[in-house]
Amino acid sequence: MTIPQSISLSQSEVERIIFSAERFKWTVSYLEQKHQLVLEKGQDWMAKLYLPWSRKWDSQKGILPLEDAHYALTLIRAGQAAVGYFHQGKLLDHKVFRAYMVRQKQGKSQIKHLKTKGKSRAGSRIRLAETERFFEEINERLQNYSRQFPIGFWGISCGKTLWPYLFSSEVTPPFSSKDSNLIELPFHISQASFEELEKAGELLGNFHLILSEKGKECIKLNPEKEEEIDSENW
Question: What pTM value is reported for the model?
């Protein structure tokens, strides 16, 4: 599990890159909806830096630790979901949910089947009821986290066909689809399991750098260099 085309860096490496970017008058901006820094040279983006969820960005002071980082992750696939609560990067609570949502012969979820053939048969009605309860249980767990902990980030990995069912559930999630602290996870989840939940939490605990083609020409990832940005290419 990785963020596509990304490189993992230490905080000191990231800080050297940011220092060099500011020295050469690049723009450093923070995107809250991705918890990401974007380094731009004029109209071109040069680098994107995903920050750990245990860190915050201060435009005056730079990267700072979150003294009390609370966040929750929700991984949803057809028929299975994993929800977890993290404190200071550690997974302290989790729950895996399963539902009879997949039509066994066709291997297609009941939600997709409803779009084509309706819900007249008993099996279809059972699967639909299971689907509704599936999302209610997920949201009940998330609501419980919201009541108990000051959640700073809500992370989600959910297919777009399932997204509406999460938010239209009779039990609603403790966030809206437009909340700035709701972040779609920037990596692929193969299955909504406890193991994937752990891996996702580990990934979100690190710095990740993505370089554009122009950024690759300018930014040199060599810790022995005093300047991380090549002044010749600048």
Answer: 0.83
Q: State the DSSP code for 99.
A: -
Amino acid at 169: S
Q: Which of 42, 14, 48 is nearest to 26 (CA)?
A: 42
- Tell how far CA 114 is from the center of its chain: 29
- Please, which residues have CB within 8 angstroms of residue 233's CB and are 6 or more apart in sequence? 217, 218
Residue 1's identity, in one-letter code, is M
User: What does the pLDDT average to over 162-187?
Assistant: 92
Q: Right CATH number for 70-203 from 3.30.420.40, 3.55.40.20, 3.50.30.10, 3.40.50.460?
A: 3.30.420.40
Q: Please choose, from the candidates 47, 75, 21, the residue with its C-alpha nearest in 3D space to the C-alpha of residue 213.
A: 47
Q: Does 234 have pLDDT greater than 60?
A: no
For residue 168, is pLDDT > 70?
A: yes
Q: Name the residue among 117, 93, 90, 96 with its Cα closest to residue 105.
A: 117
CA-atom Rg of the chain in angstroms: 21
Dump the DSSP string for 147-212: HHS---EEEEEE-TTTHHHHHSSSS--SS-TT-TTEEE-SS--SS-SHHHHHHHHHHTTSEEEEE-
DSSP string covering 101-116: -EETTTTEEHHHHHHH
